[in-house]
Every structure is written in C-alpha cells, then in structure tokens.
C-alpha cells in the first residue's frame, strides 16, 4: 500500500518539529542522465520519492507539506518533457485519490492552473473538492507556480478591493498580503528543504519563507528518503529561531 508505514521508521514526535515543511524537489533530470535514461523516467522516480515524503510527514505529525513540482520557468523546457510532466500529473491525480481519502489528506494545488489543459484542470478541481474536508496532512503541490507570480496576483486582488471600496489603503499590512496569497490560511513555512546540490530558492514561496530555516542536500530528488528527511528535521530542531530578534 502507498502509505503503509514501517514502525521502525516512526519517530517520537517532538514539540520542536516543524509544522510546515516546503521542499524544492530538484535533480530528477540529472538522476536520469546519470543512469542513461530519459528525463521523464527521472520524473517518475521523483514521484516515488514524493510518496516517501508524504509517508514521513504523516508519520511525524507534520501538518503541512508543500512541494515544488513545476515552476513557471519550467514551461520553457522542451514540449516533450512538459507534456510528459502533465501526463504524470494527471496519472497521479487519477491513481492516488483513494489514498488521499484513506489517509485523510487534503490536497491543494497552488499556482496558475490556467496553463493546464481542461482535462487536467477539471481533475485538479475534482480532487480538491473531494478532499477539502479532510483534516489530516495538508499537501500543497506547487504547479506552474512562481513566488513572484504569487505576490503579483495577491497585489492585483488587493488593488481591485481598494478600487471597490472593500479595503482602505491604510489597512494594508503584512497580514493583508498573506491573506491574498495562494497559501492563505496556512501556517508559515518553518523549514525549506532543497535537494540536488543547488543553494538557491528558485522563485519558490518568496513571501512565505522570509524566516524559514533552509536545508540543502546534494542528494538528487529520486534518491530522497526518510533518513534524509529526518536529517533535515534534526537540523531544524538544532536551530535557534529568533525571527529577527535577539537571544533572550
């Protein structure tokens, strides 16, 4: 079964564990190239790593998991690869709905979904509607997502509300911006993990990770597992989070 857990991997829940973990899943194509395979096969293996990350999150009582699956910049890749990714996305939605329901997972797709074809858009809406009342892990999949896009669409909504008299300019604060982002209503991101060896954010959740802890690993995403995830959690627990303040 997809989410059948082995007890030997279950860790004692610590109050210091992050509530919201975001992962930049990098390295699928390099993993495939190293093995002499097509890029799409790397993405398929990456999907298996995604399922491992979901398992770990449920087992360790992580409340929110946000995964960077497809950025706005990824649209510039070859049409063959992009189409393959869209087919894999549709396959995942069709085949994992029963597991989302069984394990009480609420799925949210964050990003500009108008880029996707109607079949994929309809499936996204269907799965989100079916899982909206699930009260376990919130699983955010960032698809055709960019942090700059997210802030721009938030500002546009705020401007429209100001023009309509719903908002006053003086009422606009930091929390106002947050209310209009694609992650509205969710806890702040505590920990960002990036695989693949790169040490940059790549336009991911730019507003939401202002005070997140950042963990980078050279491991390519298809090789990501519960041990590497635990290393990231241990790193997070070891950190002293000041949020711009001083040590007391």
UniProtKB/TrEMBL annotation:
Signal peptide residue numbers: none
GO CC, alphabetical: cytosol
InterPro entries registered for this protein in UniProt: UPP_synth-like, UPP_synth-like_CS, UPP_synth-like_sf
Binding residues for Mg(2+): 26, 213
Catalytic activity: 8 isopentenyl diphosphate + (2E,6E)-farnesyl diphosphate = di-trans,octa-cis-undecaprenyl diphosphate + 8 diphosphate
Subunit text: Homodimer.
Keyword Cell wall biogenesis/degradation: yes
Gene: uppS
GO MF term set: ditrans,polycis-undecaprenyl-diphosphate synthase [(2E,6E)-farnesyl-diphosphate specific] activity; magnesium ion binding
Alphabetized Gene3D superfamilies for the sequence: Decaprenyl diphosphate synthase-like (3.40.1180.10)
Family, per entry: Belongs to the UPP synthase family.
Residue positions binding substrate: 27-31, 43, 71-73, 77, 194, 200-202
Active site: 26, 74 (proton acceptor)
Classification via SUPFAM superfamilies: Undecaprenyl diphosphate synthase (SSF64005)
Domain of life where this protein originates: Bacteria
Enzyme class: transferase
Role, per record: Catalyzes the sequential condensation of isopentenyl diphosphate (IPP) with (2E,6E)-farnesyl diphosphate (E,E-FPP) to yield (2Z,6Z,10Z,14Z,18Z,22Z,26Z,30Z,34E,38E)-undecaprenyl diphosphate (di-trans,octa-cis-UPP). UPP is the precursor of glycosyl carrier lipid in the biosynthesis of bacterial cell wall polysaccharide components such as peptidoglycan and lipopolysaccharide.
Protein name, UniProt field: Ditrans,polycis-undecaprenyl-diphosphate synthase ((2E,6E)-farnesyl-diphosphate specific)
EC number: 2.5.1.31
Keyword list, A-Z: Cell shape, Cell wall biogenesis/degradation, Magnesium, Metal-binding, Peptidoglycan synthesis, Transferase
Cofactor note: Binds 2 magnesium ions per subunit.
